[in-house]
Amino acid sequence: MLLTITATHRPATDLGFLLHKHPGRFQSYDLSFGEAHVFYPEASDDRCAACLLLDVDPVGLVRGKGTDGGGGALLAQYVNDRPYAASSFLSVAISQVLGSALGGRCKDRPDLASTPIPLEARIDVLPVRGGERFLRAVFEPLGYAVVAERHPLDERFPEWGESPYFSVTIAGEATLSDLLTHLYVLIPVFDGQKHYFVGEDELEKLLARGSGWLASHPEKDEIARRYLKFRPSLYRQALARLVQEEQPTEADAQGEERPADRAEDALERPLSLNDQRLGAVLAAIRASGARRVLDLGCGEGKLLRELLKDRQFEEVVGMDVPIRSLETARDRLRLDRMPERQAARIKLIHGSLIYRDRRLEGFDAAAVVEVVEHLDPPRLSAFERAVFEFARPLTVVLTTPNREYNVRWENVGADRLRHPDHRFEWTRQEFRAWAERVAVSHGYTVRFLPVGPVDEAVGPPTQMAVFERGE
């Protein structure tokens, strides 16, 4: 079985530092099930490819082991796809041979190890139980472009049909650690088998390696079920803990505001800034002529409530990550008491803005209100692709704080952010540069509007961009 990882950033040979494997050397490692070899078929400043080749010894795997399944079971131990098809053996090799890269450690290039770069991984071959649809459903929400080549059972006998084996290439911008982590977890999910006992240790391993991405993955149920070999007790524990990971603090779960939220509201209340922000967003969406609208990061549903009041909007969908936020929105909108025709216009869905989600495609407009500043900067590229490349609404209305205005609040100042959960706040110039780059990259035009009172020196407290897709 063969895994090939290719980097195209310059200099691409930095991949050798990230993998802790020198491009000029052929290296071999003894593993319990055979040998692993690492080599570079290509290494230049423009493109560098590293291969992890596993030479599995199928006879050694079963030598000395008894069988209670009769002759057929004994034969199956020797005649199988274990030496050739990617499986849990490859995950173990990634962990043992590329462990430092998997953990995101790189002494020589620490900044690069934590920076998303263009990467491509090719797996020859991957047994996919569930076919290409499942393959795409697993990798595409993680931000990868997928190319899958299915192989026939036997080229000499086409009437036998296609096999479950694919040559799979995934490509996208990610840290090497994230890419290897996704492969480590997901390869056994496609294969549906593991060569070792699955117990509590595997549950903890899944939760540890899935931290930060699995809880909000649309296929997390099936991923957990397959990874844990359909063991009901482990699977139920995994899902319960994944749901818990998504939940906010206890105050949020009860529909209450956190102290930090109250502090931000106290800053903005004298300006009626939240009302002005919602009014500006609503006006921009209404002016676009949209009839089907997304509220991405809908929170407790304030914008949803305003959208529902306007009969122009025939379909309104609110999406957020925390389940409790969606429950609070449902309660505050009183969906259970709403007339049937009114309730048919609105839908609340669980999902994340950093993964591709086909449920978001085909809408006229999307609102992203005070959301991007809560994303870690390395995840912005995934957000951009999820919204502007994959969902591609005709209009996107996005608001975010103007950091320059913070000096007008005594309790904030120039060196602090407005909310402890903000990962960053843009100046007007930074926001304009980001928005214009996104627009050009994805075929949109963009215009900028102030929200709130405009200070001659530092601008408005909130800045808004309206993206419109070119036809």
Automatic annotation (TrEMBL):
It is an enzyme of class 2 (transferase). Keywords: Magnesium, Metal-binding, Methyltransferase, RNA-binding, RNA-mediated gene silencing, S-adenosyl-L-methionine, Transferase. Residues 1-242 form the Hen1 N-terminal domain. It catalyses: small RNA 3'-end nucleotide + S-adenosyl-L-methionine = small RNA 3'-end 2'-O-methylnucleotide + S-adenosyl-L-homocysteine + H(+). It holds the Pfam family Hen1_L. Its EC number is 2.1.1.386. GO terms for biological process: regulatory ncRNA-mediated gene silencing; RNA methylation. Residues 255-265 have a biased composition (Basic and acidic residues). InterPro entries: 3'-RNA_MeTfrase_Hen1_bac, Hen1, Hen1_N, Hen1_N_sf, Methyltransf_25, SAM-dependent_MTases_sf. Residues 245-265 are annotated as: Disordered. Residues 293-392 form the Methyltransferase domain. It comes from the Bacteria. Its cofactor is Mg(2+). GO terms for molecular function: metal ion binding; RNA binding; small RNA 2'-O-methyltransferase activity. Belongs to the methyltransferase superfamily. HEN1 family. This is Small RNA 2'-O-methyltransferase. It comes from Tautonia plasticadhaerens. The lineage of its organism: Bacteria, Pseudomonadati, Planctomycetota, Planctomycetia, Isosphaerales.
